[in-house]
Amino acid sequence: MISHVAYSQIIDNGLEKIKSTNLMHTVNILSSAEFDGRLPGSEGYNKAANFASETFEQLGLIPIGKDGYFQHLKVEYNKIDTPAVLQIFMENKKRTYLHGSNFVLRGFTGSANDTLPVAFCGYGISRPDLSYDDYGKINVNGKIVIVFKSNPSWKLNDETWGNELPREKSRVAYEHGAKGIFFVSLPNDKKPQPLIGSVVHGEGEQLENFPQYHISIETANDFLTRTGLLLSECQQRIDDRKAPFSLLLRTNARIQVVAHYKKEADTKNVIGKIEGTDPKLKEEYLVIGAHLDHVGSPAGLLFPGANDNASGSAGLLGLVEAFQHSQLKPKRSVLFALFTSEEQGLFGSKYFVENLNIDTGKIVAMINLDCIGYGDSIQVGNGKSSPELWSLVRKTDKENLNLMVEETWGNGGADATPFHEKGIPCLYFVSKESYDHLHQTTDTAETLNPKTLEEIVKLAYMTAKEIAEGKYIREEVKNIKE
């Protein structure tokens, strides 16, 4: 907590408004089943956006969207209904797998209702130009392929493999005649990725009748049973030889997915403003942002997104309240933005930067709040690209909380990235070791640390006040090679 001396020096009613009970109340609302995982384009996300806009209005923010507080944009949207079915048929035996425990559906899965043979195709890469093709010596026509979700850590001829997003790997499998794809995490990683909900998909046309599953390593091993091999052995063989090892598995999978795809669905950023009090400085802006969206509830499997990013959204709403209750009114104008579609590819923050009717040269700094409720210490990113701004927050922390770690990074990160790319100095607030429940059904409010959440929001507020008071002059950002 803030020391007595530092607190008395601040004399700010706004700071006292930042309380863990209020922040957690908002987190509980946003991560509840009513908001259905806040997938952009969905009714659940629209409810969350309406909740945010109503809060902005209650707190007296000036609306600056073209539709009140809303800034509309179009994104792809895929509604996945029940049932979600995965069964294995092998030697006259059938096993049924559980959605959420043994597999999850990718956010941009296509529809299917079929029973098909299964093949293992390594990393799912077809690069004849590098003399590497996981599909080169196997016929996958009419089959489901199991492929590693990630690309190899090694290279051939020092060439990169290219895009490893699900839509690209699905397209490669589809062009080789496959009828569906099962992604699986790398079993030989030190900490293999668990089953996650995700709407990151990549560019290109949607394959509306091509199902995409993410299956567990254990489930993949079940499909490999008749080969006498484990998935870890298959990966080891490919990695050791840097050569494909694909094989038919002599098992069949029963799959059923019901997806309704829209190429363009309406979604929205939520934006409000506090106008600065200084006649000259009010033409300059501080942007405080957080993404409101998460990954939804495919086939009824709720991904609450409490830390990612109900925590940051609650923090932003807490900052609005703090600014409005402070007797120290900002000299610069402050924009508060809840972004949509961060999970799909930073679409909301990119749209904000490109379509706001403000010269980006007038934005002196951007503060991003993302995953701020889990863990017990504070990390502030982008310090390598905006060292003077980072020094400001570091000094503020040392004088008050002393919870900030020295580790930082450069080049923005998440919703700070589009601002960084426009030359706007950024700070990215996050709780250290924040990702144990990332994109899992376990990312619930109960896992959060209310004390950490409160302290990060207080540090963000004190830093924002310094910037808004004109005590920071915009610096030239650095692009870091990392």
Give an overview in words.
With 482 residues, the chain is α/β, with parallel strands linked by helices. It has 2 domains: 251 residues, Aminopeptidase; 183 residues, Glucose Oxidase, domain 1 (3-Layer(bba) Sandwich), CATH 3.50.30. It contains 13 helices and 16 strands. The strands form 2 sheets. Strands 1, 2, 3, 4, 5, 8, 9, 10, 11, 12, 13, 14, 15 and 16 form a 14-stranded mixed β-sheet that branches. It has a two-stranded antiparallel ribbon with strand order 6-7. A hairpin with a 2-residue loop joins β2 and β3. The longest helix is centred in the middle third of the chain and has 20 residues. It starts with a helix and ends in a 14-residue tail after the last helix.
Concise synopsis of the structure shown:
The chain has 482 residues and is α/β, with parallel strands linked by helices.
Helix fraction, binned, reads: 25-40%
Compute the separation of the termini in Å. 34 Å
Are there runs of 5+ residues with pLDDT below 50, and where? 1-10
Biggest β-sheet strands, sense, barrel: 14 strands, mixed
Tell me the layout of helices and strands.
Layout (H helix, E strand, L loop, with lengths): L3 H7 L2 H4 L3 H11 L12 H16 L3 E2 L6 E21 L2 E4 L6 E3 L6 E9 L5 E2 L4 E2 L10 E5 L17 H10 L4 E5 L27 E4 L1 H7 L7 H11 L5 E28 L10 E7 L14 H20 L7 E7 L2 H4 L1 H9 L7 E7 L8 E4 L5 H14 L16 H5 L4 E6 L18 H19 L14
Parallel strand pairs: 5-8, 8-9, 9-10, 12-13, 12-14, 14-16
Antiparallel strand pairs: 1-11, 2-3, 2-11, 4-10, 5-11, 6-7, 11-13, 15-16
